[in-house]
Amino acid sequence: MSDQASLPGTAPTTLPATAAETSPDNPWPLQLLSQKLKAHIDRTPSAWVEGQVIELNRRGTNAYITLRDVDAEVSLPASVWTKVLERQNLPLERGSRVVALLKPEFWMKTGRLNMQVRDIRPVGLGDLLARIERLRQALASEGLFADSRKKRLPLLPHRIGLITGRDSDAKKDVLRNAALRWPAVEFEVREVAVQGNTAVSQMVRALRELDARPEVDVIVFARGGGALEDLLPFNSEELVRAVAAASTPVVSAIGHEADRPLLDDVADLRASTPTDAAKRIVPEVSEELAGVRQAREQLRRCVERLVDRESDRLAALHSRPVMAAPEGMVSVRGEEIERLLRRSSAAVSSTVVRAADQLEHLKAQVRALSPQKTLDRGYAVVELSGDQAARIAEAGHAVVRRPSEAPAGAALSIRVAEGRFGATSTGPAQLPGTPPATGAQHPGNPDQHQEMEHNA
């Protein structure tokens, strides 16, 4: 936007539209800056805030209060009409925890920013409990209180991180009882504020410092009992999430048995009191020594029973006949081997004899069926020879089987037992008791021809 303004003793000039466009030669009037600041702050909506009243001054129809953050060193002055305070059932006092509806206002003439309280309500015990319960349910729905994410405490921690109040009874209880149970235990102590608006930040800082030290095996939060308002830092969402993110096991020992802040739910172990925490994080040295003695006695008895049992087994083994005369086992096996050798030798010999007899019998059969044997008995084999034998061989045979196959003048080859000799056929011969064939000539000995024909 462009603004026209007439300054005393100057002519009208064109003013920059935004603060970024201003310069030494073309500045804004202070009034314009105040107007813009007021317009911007007037558009700011009202907001409910929570804090603690640390100052309260009444001046006629106005009252001036100072609110301080419950978890940090931040304070804010504000003004409130007395009629707003008079609407409260209980009078507002210093130290009261309240929620207030604040609306920022800017006074142009003085350039002062004022926080106007349009409504204010005290936070009672019931309101605090309801808010803590809502936060408990929200964190539980995220799984921060689940047993599955809780870490197991070490059996014997060598160094314990302790977060407690300065020179508090809780600190003395933890140190004294832990030393009585295990004199060698060591502590890494962080003394912090355990109530008030700086308690949460100091405890979170101490937790992260101890969690970063690898020699610290477990971290303990210890504080004595107190009112709900005193234990509010242990219900802080920031502290709960810091404990959930720690890699070192955390033990909560806050207040008494009846006190149960959110820290108890997120911690890996909840102790009812600081004294109970000391008893649960370190073992009792006398009990451990008694356990060691008992374990050694049990081990001794087990070893003795094992030795006795194995001695009995050795004695039983020594009493066996095989151990008394170990060569007997070898001699028995030797006799068995000799017996088997004799049986196998006899079986092989008998088989060889039977096979030899069978071979001789087969050889006799073969010799009896041999053509040579037939020739040895005086028989002969008559075969054609020469060109006629070749022609007949083409037909499939050359042995003379019929007289007609050896006409007169045919060359013959006669095989006898001790060799061959040649002959010439004189033609078919007449058998005894048959008339001679017409024109047949039978030179030579007829009986010889008859025998040759019969043999053929």
Give a quick precis of the structure:
The protein is 41% helix and 21% strand. The chain has 456 residues and is α/β, with parallel strands linked by helices.
Could you please describe the fold and organization of this structure?
The protein is 41% helix and 21% strand. With 456 residues, it is α/β, with parallel strands linked by helices. α4 runs parallel beside α8 and α5 (199-211) packs parallel to α6 (237-245). It has 14 helices and 15 strands. A hairpin with a 2-residue loop joins β3 and β4 (62-68). The strands form four sheets. The protein has a five-stranded mixed β-barrel with strand order 3-4-5-7-6. The chain folds into four domains: 4-123, OB fold (Dihydrolipoamide Acetyltransferase, E2P) (Beta Barrel), CATH 2.40.50; 129-283, Rossmann fold; 284-319; 376-428 and 445-455, no CATH class. The longest helix is centred in the C-terminal third of the chain and has 43 residues, at 326-368. It has helices spanning 30-42, 82-86, 125-141, 169-181, 199-211, 237-245, 262-266, 274-281, 285-318, 321-324, 326-368, 371-376, 387-395, 446-455; strands at residues 4-5, 13-14, 47-59, 62-68, 75-81, 97-107, 112-122, 159-164, 186-191, 218-223, 250-254, 269-270, 381-384, 411-416, 419-424. The relative contact order is 0.06. The chain starts with a strand and ends with a helix.
Which secondary structure elements does this structure contain, and how are they paired or packed?
Blueprint (H helix, E strand, L loop, with lengths): L3 E2 L7 E2 L15 H13 L4 E13 L2 E7 L6 E7 H5 L10 E11 L4 E11 L2 H17 L17 E6 L4 H13 L4 E6 L7 H13 L6 E6 L13 H9 L4 E5 L7 H5 L2 E2 L3 H8 L3 H34 L2 H4 L1 H43 L2 H6 L4 E4 L2 H9 L15 E6 L2 E6 L21 H10 L1
Helix pairs in contact: 4-8, 5-6
